[in-house]
Design goal:
Distance between the termini: 27 Å
Number of helices: 4
Structural class: mainly beta
Strand order of the largest sheet: 4-15-18-17-16-19
Radius of gyration: 34 Å
Number of strands: 24
Strand content: 35-45%
Order of helices and strands: HEEEEEEEEEEHEHEEEEEEHEEEEEEE
């Protein structure tokens, strides 16, 4: 990760500086050297040297990485009208689609929004019809407060049977409920649903763009819509996505530098691009799309879209001993040590690097111990 490489470069720069000080000394200060095998000083400073020091502290460390993202309403989806007629009224971008309300008008008649997962693909004008489109009609009329009677699935039309379509039956009671709803909403009360007089959406949505103009045919691409909830879209290198999981807590930094809590809500299962060396050279390494959702909608209420930064925290270490990275000394035999103010070195094992600190452990390392740091 980029942040980890930065820590490694800093560590190298500072440890080399300190190692040079230890081996060459400073003007008029004498020389200090360490025999790692004997554990003794070969010489000592002949006059005081001003040292920068720090104490070994017990703290929590974590590895973090920040990636750019875009705040918005998610990927726009197209809405295509059905049936005959002419578009006579259209919504404005930003309008919200609500169940049972008109989204646009054809031949000066409202096209109403229903929620569901099956579009109306035929007229519902014959009693006894079965299908998931009938189920969508029944579910929405029930949700709008109408008594639709018994619309249980028919055993003769269960999914998997020959010629079966599944779904509910268009019963006299359902037709009567449809007729009452049409009367209450000022429509022609037929008790049937003509193709193109209602549009099925996955839930409450926001109109994103309007491509049609008044006078266009009803059967065509009319507009695009998005979710009503704002989220952050970003891409993560496929090699790093293992550290990203659904439900993971992250922090989003907004353009005004406010930091808000958010959660990873979607990690795509498909990898995009970079399947060959040639493709990687042209479009970059393979990536995975990730969606992050702010925990409080009010935090982003004033923004429709913006470039943001997303902070991921992966490895966490609780209650470990840590010192500034500049306290590390590179040993000739390999590995690292920290220097006591008196000149002695204590070998250490390093762990997590984070925000200029490094986790250390080993015999002789204790909380509160004073160590020398590079200036």
């Amino acid at each position: 990760m980029a942040e980890h490489r930065l820590h490694v470069r800093r560590r190298h720069r500072f440890t080399v500086t300190l190692a040079v000080l230890l081996s060459a000394g400073t003007a008029g200060a004498g020389t200090v050297a360490w025999n790692a095998r004997a554990g003794t000083h070969e010489s000592a400073p002949d006059q005081p040297v001003h040292l920068h020091t720090s104490k070994v502290a017990r703290t929590d460390l974590s590895t973090r990485r920040t990636m750019p993202g875009t705040l918005g309403y998610g990927r726009p989806l197209p809405l295509r009208g059905k049936g005959a007629g002419t578009v006579t009224r259209l919504p404005s971008p930003g309008a919200r689609a609500a169940r049972g309300k008109a989204l646009y008008w054809v031949d000066d008649q409202p096209v109403t929004v229903f929620f569901g997962d099956t579009p109306f693909f035929r007229p519902l004008d014959k009693l006894g019809l079965h299908g998931h489109d009938v189920t969508v009609l029944a579910d929405n009329l029930r949700a709008l407060g109408y008594d639709i009677g018994d619309t249980a699935w028919s055993s003769r039309h269960t999914a998997g049977a020959e010629g079966a379509s599944g779904g509910d039956e268009f019963t006299p009671a359902l037709s009567a409920a449809l007729k009452r709803w049409q009367q209450h909403t000022g429509q022609q009360a037929t008790g049937t649903l003509a193709l193109g007089r209602a549009v099925v959406l996955p839930g409450p949505v926001r109109v994103n763009t309007v491509g049609a103009v008044l006078g266009d045919p009803a059967e065509g691409d009319l507009l695009t819509y998005t979710s009503t909830a704002k989220s952050v879209a970003l891409t993560v290198d496929a090699t790093d996505v293992g550290g990203v999981r659904t439900g993971q807590a992250v922090t989003v930094t907004l353009p005004d530098n406010r930091e808000i809590p958010a959660t990873v809500t979607v990690v795509a299962r498909a990898v995009q691009g970079g399947s060959s060396d040639e493709e990687q050279a042209q479009a970059g390494p393979p990536t995975v799309a990730v969606t992050v959702t702010p925990r409080r909608a009010a935090d982003v209420k004033a923004l429709d879209s913006a470039s943001v930064q997303v902070l991921f925290t992966s490895t966490e270490r609780k209650g470990v001993l840590a010192v500034p990275v500049t306290a590390l000394v590179a040993l000739r035999e390999g590995g690292y040590a920290v220097q006591r103010p008196g000149g002695g070195l204590v070998a250490v094992e390093t762990g997590v690097f984070s925000d200029g600190l490094v986790e250390i452990s080993g015999p002789g390392v204790g909380e509160g111990m004073t160590v020398v740091t590079a200036s």
